Amino acid sequence: MRNDAEKQFYTDNMLTGRFSPAFINSLNPGQLAMISSCMYYESELQKGIARGEKWVYTNSERYANQASAFDAMVASGRHGVNCAMPSGWAMIDMGVLASGMRYWGNDKGEIANYSTYAPLLLQACKVKHWEGGVPFSSLYEGGYARPGDTFMGRGHTFVYLGEDRVMAAGHDGKWHSDPDALTEDGRKAVFDTWLCPVRENNDYRFRVTWQMSFRDDFVPKYYRNSRGELVPNPAAN
Fold first, then answer.
1. 158 is in which domain, residue-wise?
2. Is 237 domain-assigned?
3. Does 102 fall in a domain?
4. Residue 110 domain-assigned (yes or no)
């Protein structure tokens, strides 16, 4: 049974009106914090687009601080994003990692920086290695994909949000080419949205080698409230 502080944590968040109440109530604290954070990032993307900003795909420090917290990146005026950043932003926002720490699925299908940050990540998550790689579609259809999970493989990272949606902030997202975009990306990708349906997205066919799932007993230090503000979690010790 949840106490009053836990009820506030579960109900005062960015998911209200975007996911079903039954789904929200099924989430553990880590899942809720990851998904709420991702929904906040999407809401800020849409606000930026409405202001005429171009949020570009980039892997360069020139166009985005690759290891900063999300709010710090936005405040810098550099709106550059890649596939691994939403999961890393959320881990920083939750208090799992500090700003400056980052991980991603590298070109060998390994988790970059994992040996350095594993002690921190393993306090929050269980990490599963899928030897040889498994198509995400098989994990999804087989019931192995949990809401809020981060999936990594050769050169790619993404988050499964739940209710048939993924957070796709790389070339797996919805974007258009803009020759005037300030990015080193050869496709000059400018994002339209990071929320994509599972089966209609390239991630559905992606071969996963690593899956990171939140422990049921993990309690984040911070979360996003219904206004997107980052506030201390009253249920945390």
1. 4-232
2. no
3. yes
4. yes
Instruction: Express the helix, strand and coil content of the chain in percent, nearest 5 each.
Output: 30, 25, 45
Neighbour-count burial of 214, counting CB atoms closer than 10 A to its CB (0-12 exposed, 13-18 middle, 19+ buried): buried
CB-CB contact of 63 with 80 (8 Å): yes
Q: Give the span between the Cα atoms of 143 and 162, in whole angstroms.
A: 11
The residue written with tokens 């080698």 in the block is 209
In the chain, what percentage of residues exceed pLDDT 90? 85
Q: Is residue 53 part of a domain?
A: yes
Contacts of 224 (CB under 8 A, 6+ apart): 13, 14, 33, 36, 37, 39, 40, 93, 230, 231
- Exposed, middle or buried, 207 (CB in 10 Å: 0-12/13-18/19+)? middle
Count of the separate structural domains present in the chain: 1
CB 32 within 8 A of CB 15: yes
Q: What is the DSSP letter of 94?
A: H
Tell me how far the alpha carbon of residue 106 is from its chain's centroid.
Answer: 17
Contacts of 175-179 with CB under 8 Å at 24 or more apart are 175/57, 178/54
What tens digit of pLDDT does each residue of 156-197 get? Answer: 999 999 999 999 999 999 999 999 999 999 999 999 999 999
